[in-house]
Amino acid sequence: MSIKGATVFAAGCRGMGYITPASGSQGYKAYTGNLGNGKLVSVKSSSNGAIIYQAVAPKGASYVFYSSPEATSSYAISTGAGSLSCQYGNAWTHSWNDGSEADGVITFTCTTCGATQTQSVLTATDTACEGHEAVEQDAVADEGYAVSFNLGEGVTVNVYHTQDYATATETGVTSAVSRNSDTGEPDSTGDGQVNFTVVVADGYSFPGLSANDIAGTFKNLKDVSTKDLPFTYRITKVQSDLTVNVAASKSGQGTGDDADTTETQVMYRLYNPNSGEHFYTANAAERDNLVTVGWSYEGEAWVAPVSSETPVYRLYNSHEALGDHHYTTSKEEYDYLVSIGWTGEGIGWYSDDAQGVGLHRLYNPNAYTMGLTGAHHYTASEEEMENLVSQGWQYEEFGWYGVVA
């Protein structure tokens, strides 16, 4: 069945009983023989012979039905060869152009027959319903997800709207929003980012950020620090409002006869009796939190410089049943582990470039078969290192260096 305005035209096979009833503007006409496949069927006004409608007959058609409430007389039907004219066919048989807009109306023109059709341009105004006035609908701007920086003493935050870290877009802020990394526009689609630098005041030490310092839903915390721009981070694929806890502590000073001094921080050591893992941090708040959830505090492990040319990166493997941390000075190793599923937690601390106190690195080849996750251990103690080697641990030289206290 094809429809053009109020006119309906259809053709079908035998079954109408070859009756030819007609009443005014509608009826159907039977044929003793089939209409040939592809024959052009024209519906004409009986009064003036004007073509009202055309269609191509299907194969085996034996009757035609036509209806047009607007007509005042019956129709005559004829068949023959020829091609369908878009002037009498369906609206979709026209070859419409792209249209032109004027005064809120788009006019489309058929490039074959010159017929036109109009369409109103959609506006932002809702149609008024009964008892209510029409409401102008303004487009809702994307405001991004809100990010709050919970800053401790001795730190401030500078924010970048894109991944261009040449100049901070906002300085000394306590809040930001997730943004598109290319355009810098607010983004709450789930792909937005937050790019920022933690600025540490003189006399304070900052251990770096980890994913544990961020409350909310996101994919990764990436450390994008450089020598000239330390403590710079990117939080990716932000999917909710975030709170970033940034805590620093007052740092000690190295001693010696030289005028130059090295700013230092104490590194704390903890032990997880459930997994066998040792954990290291300069963050007293992180230390205290782990103690409250069952970790054992084992005291101060060594003294690290607040900054140096050699960062120590921290990673976390959430795919292990009990979780596992790993530490390395190799950026290549860090990037590789992130690529295979580890969570990069950025710079944990720094190694002493003067190589004052070596931190022995040892590996337990039996850790995973014993159901433990603390496969690596680090210690400044020669005695502890030798004891572990005697129990089957493998010695892997120094992992990094601490400052001579």
Would you give an account of this structure?
The protein is mainly β and 405 residues long. It is built from 3 helices and 31 strands. It has helices spanning 284-292, 331-339, 382-390, and strands spanning 2-4, 7-12, 22-23, 26-35, 40-45, 51-56, 61-67, 75-80, 100-102, 105-109, 116-120, 146-151, 155-160, 175-177, 192-200, 204-205, 214-215, 220-223, 232-238, 242-246, 249-250, 252-253, 263-271, 278-281, 296-305, 310-317, 324-328, 343-351, 357-363, 376-379, 394-402. Strands 1-2-7-4-3 form a 5-stranded antiparallel beta sheet, with no helix packed on it. A 4-stranded mixed beta sheet has the order 14-12-20-17, with no helix packed on it. The chain has a 4-stranded antiparallel beta sheet with strand order 13-15-19-18, with no helix packed on it. The radius of gyration is 39 Å and the shape is elongated. 28% of the residues are buried. The model is unreliable at 1-8, 13-33, 69-73 and 253-260 (pLDDT under 50).
Low-confidence stretches: 1-8, 13-33, 69-73, 253-260
Overall mean pLDDT score? 78
SSE class: mainly beta
| Contiguous helical run count | 3
Amount of helix: under 10%
Total strands: the figure is 31
Q: How far apart lie the N and C ends? A: 93 Å
Q: What is the percentage of strand-forming residues?
A: 35-45%
